[in-house]
Amino acid sequence: LAYEARESGNPIVRPLFFEEAAPFTYGSSCEKQFLLGPALLIAPIFEPYQLQNNGDDKKAFLYLPNKKQTWYDFFTGEGYQGGQTLADFQAPLWKLPVFIKKGSILPFTKATNHPNEITYDRRQLAVYPSEEPTTFTVYEDDGISTSYEKGGFATTKISQELTDTIQISIEKTKGSYYQMVFERETILFVFSKQPVKEVFINGQKVT
């Protein structure tokens, strides 16, 4: 997202009108929730509403933009149609109201405290398939130097499309940087409402 911000000017943290430009999203009603990049919608609890002794509470209301879009509760997987307001949304102590947009491709990595702890021998991607094809470009550099200003970085384009099957494509990585790790394990977390019957990798059926 920082790479996208540098290249396009789109901020990392975004108001809801990036997803739906309308009088409602421009107003103050949506000022207590935000988008994190194009995929995640986060609606923090700012003040107690129906706070319980064990710390559980509810979000009085939150808005999911874009009536043509589906949003999934990031923790439970339950789907909600966009273009609606959810009232008294359950927010137990363990679960912040976080939603992920259908069609999103989300890279994961383990939490680190500083760049020297980052490891590159494994890449993890969560894919939320949609009938509308989507892409996401994973950016990486050494995380320490400014060599990216001279071309020391790499990008990998990833795409998905849902037809009668879920199709995920990972293109060849372009570019390189100092001490880049070329041999990696790839783990895909694929969100599916139906049981998986068959898996093919590069056209070959696998168990």
What does this structure look like?
The chain is mostly beta strands. Helix content is 5%, strand content 40%. The protein has two helices and 17 strands. It has helices spanning 2-8, 23-26; strands spanning 13-14, 34-36, 40-42, 57-64, 70-73, 79-81, 84-91, 98-101, 105-108, 122-127, 134-140, 153-162, 166-170, 174-176, 185-190, 199-201, 204-206. The strands form five sheets. A six-stranded antiparallel sheet has the order 1-2-3-8-5-6, with no helix packed on it. The longest helix is centred in the N-terminal third of the chain and has 7 residues, at 2-8. The mean pLDDT is 93.
Please give the structural blueprint.
Blueprint lengths: L1 H7 L4 E2 L8 H4 L7 E3 L3 E3 L14 E8 L5 E4 L5 E3 L2 E8 L6 E4 L3 E4 L13 E6 L6 E7 L12 E10 L3 E5 L3 E3 L8 E6 L8 E3 L2 E3 L1
Structural descriptors:
single chain; 207 residues; mainly beta; four-stranded antiparallel β-sheet; 5% helix; globular
Short characterization:
This protein is mostly beta strands and 207 residues long. It has two helices and 17 strands.
Provide the residue-averaged pLDDT: 93
C-alpha Rg (nearest Å): 19 Å
Q: Approximately how much beta-strand content do the residues carry?
A: 35-45%
Per DSSP E runs of 2 or more residues, the count of β-strands stands at: 17
SSE topology string: HEHEEEEEEEEEEEEEEEE
Structural class by SSE content? mainly beta
Helix content: under 10%
Order of strands in the sheet with most strands: 1-2-3-8-5-6
**Could you list the spans in which at least 5 consecutive residues all have pLDDT below 50?**
none
Reported for the largest beta sheet, the result is:
6 strands, antiparallel
Spatial gap, N to C terminus: 35 Å
Which word captures the global form?
globular
**Number of helical segments with 4 or more residues:** 2
